[in-house]
Amino acid sequence: MSATPLLELRGIDKSFGPVQVLRDVAFAAYPGEVTALVGDNGAGKSTLVKCISGIYPIDAGEFVFDGQPVTISSPRDAASLGIEVVYQDLALCDNLDIVQNMFLGREKRNGLVLDEPTMEQMAAETLAGLSVRTVKSLRQHVSSLSGGQRQTVAIAKAVLWNSKLVILDEPTAALGVAQTAQVLELVRRLADNGLAVVLISHNMNDVFAVSDRIAALYLGQMVAQVKTTEITHAQVVELITAGRSGELGLAVDPGVNGNGAAPADSTTGGVS
Ligand SMILES: Nc1ncnc2c1ncn2[C@@H]1O[C@H](COP(=O)(O)OP(=O)(O)OP(=O)(O)O)[C@@H](O)[C@H]1O
């Protein structure tokens, strides 16, 4: 496991009008590791991810990427650093095939024409690099794929661009047991290939099955970021639901700016 974060956030604040959604948030994601981002509905997970991916500007705070302070003002900035997000709704086009989906909006051209052989080869190499063997033909329409296969294509699309950090928003939410296991294996493989992976999940079994670290948001504050081996299922549930764990000597990662303690007054820490 690497001890140097690829992405480190310090003191992130984000409000929408009078509503403060993120408050002094610290967060770190490490190459070769899966960091699970957990929190109840409305805790601020999606907002944090949208700040990281340049969709929302932050009000205050610092981003450090690969050891350098960076400003992320647009999704293009995030993509150029190698940050990709796979959203829950996948944004795949049913009427296009796998290759067309993987290159949608970033097609390779040979002069004026699409360079289909190169795109097909890159798609095949990416899927092979992820040990994906469940897809029969790269030219099959996405509409004919199972939920797990669709998720696989969406993840492969995200890693096609020399990504360094991949953020997955509830990748198993709509999947059955076998497909969930397949997708979790793929999530693990991404990290084993050296990527920093952030996994948003409400499913504690998934979180404990695949993550190296767990970051818990509660009412817009990061109440813990700990190694998965150092926390129990019950303690994570307590952090998510109460913002603190009575018996937990919180071991917040070095370099993460949060103090690891629960909000001094968690009733004022967020929004309803
Ligand atoms: N554009 C916005 N304008 C105003 N408030 C917003 C906006 N986006 C999010 N919020 C509020 O910020 C809070 C955090 O929302 P967010 O979607 O980040 O939570 P979440 O942890 O991702 O929740 P969930 O698990 O339900 O997706 C919520 O109370 C939400 O209503």
Structural notes for this entry:
By secondary structure, the protein is an alpha/beta fold. The protein folds into two domains: 7-82 and 163-268, P-loop containing nucleotide triphosphate hydrolases (Rossmann fold), CATH 3.40.50.300; 93-162, no CATH class. The protein has helices spanning 45-52, 75-81, 98-102, 116-129, 147-159, 177-192, 204-210, 233-242, and strands at residues 7-16, 19-29, 34-38, 60-65, 68-70, 83-86, 109-110, 113-114, 165-169, 196-200, 213-218, 221-227. The strands form three sheets. A six-stranded mixed β-sheet has the order 6-9-10-3-11-12, with helices on both faces. A four-stranded antiparallel β-sheet has the order 2-1-4-5, covered by helices on one side. The two termini are 37 Å apart. Bound molecules: adenosine-5'-triphosphate. The site of adenosine-5'-triphosphate (ATP) has 12 residues, from strand 2 and helix 1. Adenosine-5'-triphosphate (ATP) is lined by residues 16, 19, 21, 39, 41-47, 271. This is ABC transporter ATP-binding protein. It holds the Pfam family ABC_tran.
Tell me the structural class.
alpha/beta
Q: Please name the CATH architecture of the largest domain.
A: 3-Layer(aba) Sandwich
Strand order of the largest sheet: 6-9-10-3-11-12
State the end-to-end distance: 37 Å
Q: What radius of gyration results from the CA coordinates?
A: 19 Å
What is the CATH topology assignment of the largest domain?
Rossmann fold
Largest sheet: 6 strands, mixed
Query: What's the tally of helices?
Result: 8
CATH class of the largest domain: Alpha Beta
Number of domains: 2
Low-pLDDT sequence parts? 251-272
Share of helical residues = 25-40%
Overall, the morphology is globular
So, the CATH homologous superfamily of the largest domain? P-loop containing nucleotide triphosphate hydrolases
